[in-house]
Amino acid sequence: MSAKTMLVTGGSRGIGAAIARLGAAAGWHVAVNYASNEEAAARVVDDIISTGGEAFAIRGDVGEEADVIAMFEAVDARFGRLDGLVNNAGVVDRKARLDEMSVERLTRMMRINVIGTALCAREAVRRMSTSHGGAGGAIVNISSIAAVLGAPGEYIDYAASKGAVDTLTVGLAREVAAEGIRVNAVRPGIIDTEIHASGGQPDRVAAMRGLVPMKREGTAEEVARAALWLLSDEASYSTGAILTTSGGR
Ligand code: NAP
């Protein structure tokens, strides 16, 4: 039988890259999606192939329906099956209060983090659901502890987008539970990646570390291990679960 395959959105850097690498090490064939950093995606793919795995990179903005459709068609063409989807692609924005936020900012946040997650999950369900002739599968959404904390004064738009991801996880899990698909989420806390610099706060990890009960940030690999477990058959009776990986925060 051919190997199981997964698509990791935003698999070029940070948590997504760790999931892609760890997934490949566990025997999955991996489609590595990225938005614009082709070099970073190529590095992940090269690392996987050089260690005997199978992977390819695919550009696409998860918030654009045409890109998402093309991305899943590329996975169909290359792998001929889809067993796992990790909805990891996500963005933050500059630190701001709601009364300072433009509609363009709010729209971008929801388009990438919420609509992107929903569109990719839709394409996965169309392929995996036994009611569509599929063989089942697993979806893991990457949420954030911000969904619970609200991120006041920093980015409540981001927090709200992750709240929507949590609700989408629970609802979709129940919607497709009898069709062979499990849908779960990982809810990371402060993780050491480039996302903080992309939001204009390169020192955010150091500044927040003291607020974490474990008194340290998490690594992308620590989040990846949680995601891989939820994707795997080891989690066969878990659906609609949200696994918090935040050092106790
Ligand atoms: P990151 O280091 O900034 O990496 C983001 C990844 O997403 C990159 O691969 C990027 O591609 C991709 N991406 C961005 N916008 C995209 C789009 N529109 N379409 C497709 N791909 C897109 O971020 P990270 O810290 O690993 O975060 C990954 C996920 O974890 C996000 O959903 C984030 O909200 C969540 N999270 C992170 C933390 C944390 O502290 N780091 C905490 C909680 C939750 P390019 O390389 O092409 O730019």
TrEMBL record:
InterPro entries: KR_dom, NAD(P)-bd_dom_sf, Sc_DH/Rdtase_CS, SDR_fam
Domain of life: Bacteria
Keywords: Oxidoreductase
Domain Ketoreductase as annotated: residue spans: 4-208
The keyword Oxidoreductase is annotated on this UniProt entry: yes
SMART domains documented for this protein: PKS_KR
Family: Belongs to the short-chain dehydrogenases/reductases (SDR) family.
The name this protein goes by in its record: SDR family oxidoreductase
Organism: Neoaquamicrobium sediminum
